[in-house]
Amino acid sequence: MRRTQLYLDENLWTALHAHARREGTTISELVRQAARERYLGSGAHRSEAMAGIVGLREDRKLPDSTEYVRDLRRGDRFERLHGKDRS
């Protein structure tokens, strides 16, 4: 964690101070929480986004990985990339 200092106007400081006392926390924690929610998004929002992509490509047929690698090895990829003959 890194330390920083902020200049808050009197109205904002008063509001944060009152809220912190009601919640039993610190002004620093309130500022960290607000910054997290604003710039990282809430955990619930991230969970909802992740749930939305689950199974997105489940209908996609993937090739057999063993056969795919064998096809790559049999191909001319090395010669195309390096301009060499593999003899």
What attributes characterize this protein structure?
87 residues; mainly alpha; elongated
Average residue pLDDT: 83
Order of helices and strands: HHHHH
Distance between the termini: 57 Å
The share of residues in helices is: 55-70%
Query: Major sheet: size, sense and barrel closure?
Result: none
Give me the Rg, rounded: 28 Å
Judged by helices, strands and strand pairing, the structural class is mainly alpha
Low-confidence stretches: none
Would you report the number of β strands? 0
Number of helices: 5
Beta-strand share of residues:
under 5%
Shape: elongated
Structure description:
By secondary structure, the protein is mainly alpha-helical. The protein has a domain of 52 residues. 62% of the residues lie in helices and 0% in strands. The chain is built from 5 helices and no strands. It is elongated and about 70 Å long. The N and C termini lie far apart (57 Å).
Question: What's the SSE blueprint?
Answer:
Blueprint lengths: L9 H14 L3 H13 L3 H11 L11 H10 L2 H6 L5
Helix pairs in contact: 1-2
Give the structure's gist in a few sentences.
With 87 residues, the chain is mostly helical.
